[in-house]
Amino acid sequence: MPSTSVANQSKWNGNVEIYPNSDDDVGNYIARAALAKTAFVLEDAKAATTEEHELTLAEAFKHHKKAIFWAAVLSLTIVMEGYDNILISSFYGYPSFQRKYGEPVGDGSYQLSGKWQSALGAASSVGTIFGVFANGFLIERFGHRMVIMASLVVMSAFIFIPFFAPSVGILVFGQVMCGLPWGIFATMGPTYSSEVCPMALRGHLTAYVNMCWAIGQFIAAGVLQGLVDNTTEWSYRVPFAVQWAWPIPLFILTFLAPNSPWWLVRKGDHEGAEKSLKRLASKAVHHRIPNQVALMIHTNALEQAQHQSKSNDEKGWRGYLQCFKGTNLRRTEIACMAIAGQVASGSTLMYSPSYFFSNAGLSADNVYKLNLGVTGISFTGCVVSWFLLPNFGRRTIYVTGYTILSIFLLLTAILATPNQSDGLQWTQAVFTIIWVGTYASTIGPLGFTILSEISATRLRAQTVAIGRNAYNLISLISQVIEPYMINPTEGNLKGKTAYIWFGTAFPTLLWCYFRLPETKGRTYEELDILFERRIGARKFSSTEVELEHVEVDLPGTKE
């Protein structure tokens, strides 16, 4: 950048002094913008865009280790949601849990009724829906760190309810209350990761969110397997108590984490954004930070200009309303479908193998070994997705994965139709493992990546919240109807339930082909321009984009 005649702005307060040959930093950039209006903003934003495109994956890992660390740490809060997600559904086939909360079925065994299974399955989703919407308000007001820390405190208190629940009704209430902070965690990880990582790492760290789910599910499966022979009440209380292990260390780490630089830019704290970026990158690339801040400021200004919004138009309910106006409506549709498509793919059935296969006739020991294997494969699939992301587009991975999932749903349903034998049961088990592996390496992680990337930066918290609640609402419906379809005292469809889920998966696959755009290798400003031009989904990857001139209102720039 030019340094022969630059300006320095002390403390970003609008007091501009001109002097030659000073070190170029963000303060100098702002003061130069004060002299040259928006010319330098566009120039430096273009330079940052070029740097983003030229940054290789190896260089990103080398120079942005701290960004990787902090994104990974704050996303670990999702482990708790993943843990409980599989915990409750796995309890349905757990002997001691059935005796405590179930009813006798006549042969000396106990069964939790379909009504209470539906209530338990839906309870956390109800709480999560409210938590997700609340987060859309809280992030923009208080920032990621403060909201996470407060939620961890609340979470620690709410765990007492399911731990001591004397009845299934109290257990349902406890799940609703725990769902409130889970909703906040569910949207916090992808939004924070998408805002602290460079473009080369964006897909990996947002996809890592799905791995956190898998980690939680793997821990839950291991805990359940270790307690399956325990016939006391501690066999189901201990799994609840394990959740107290996470809040304290996560609270400390979150307190030490940097704020999102994008959030700071939206708040007008450009100096704070500079400091945050310096904490997220190695000193070797600190000279690029002025350009990065310029790109953030220019993107923010472009989005305001595109939607003719004022600085407070994205706050409160106004932000949610903005998501359904103009080109934001299309982006909201994509966010909702990409993440809700995870449920439409049949995950409610395939990610509850314990109850599914216990009703299919497998022994309790084999069921929980299978459950542990499924969650292990889910974890491995997330790692596989990291190798797919640099080599294939988001759209390609998602559509291919959805095609494979639809095929294996249909095959599972066909095998479940005739009278069952050991061979058919184990073949269905193998298909389930293949399905989970495919899901975990394709639409599982990519759903979070697309959800995090697709929105305008000024509406990211609200768009992610709407998308995640689309997922929650569909998940809520699936958790209500799935027990009735599979329960031996209700629909007793067993594996034939896969026919139902194929009926939702195939139309979603068609939507993906015609409506899902490619976001790989695009900066957030480039995506803004592509959506503003209304480029078709299948033409996103091939369309050339040039950054546009836009008026930028900065401290010290007004005459």
UniProtKB/TrEMBL annotation:
Q: What is this protein called?
A: Major facilitator superfamily (MFS) profile domain-containing protein
Q: Which InterPro entries match?
A: MFS_dom (IPR020846), MFS_sugar_transport-like (IPR005828), MFS_Sugar_Transporters (IPR050360), MFS_trans_sf (IPR036259), Sugar/inositol_transpt (IPR003663), Sugar_transporter_CS (IPR005829)
Subcellular location per UniProt equals: Membrane
Species of origin: Candida tenuis (strain ATCC 10573 / BCRC 21748 / CBS 615 / JCM 9827 / NBRC 10315 / NRRL Y-1498 / VKM Y-70)
Keyword vocabulary terms for this entry: Membrane, Transmembrane, Transmembrane helix, Transport
Record carries keyword Chloroplast:
no
Molecular function via GO: carbohydrate:proton symporter activity
User: Pfam families attached here?
Assistant: Sugar_tr
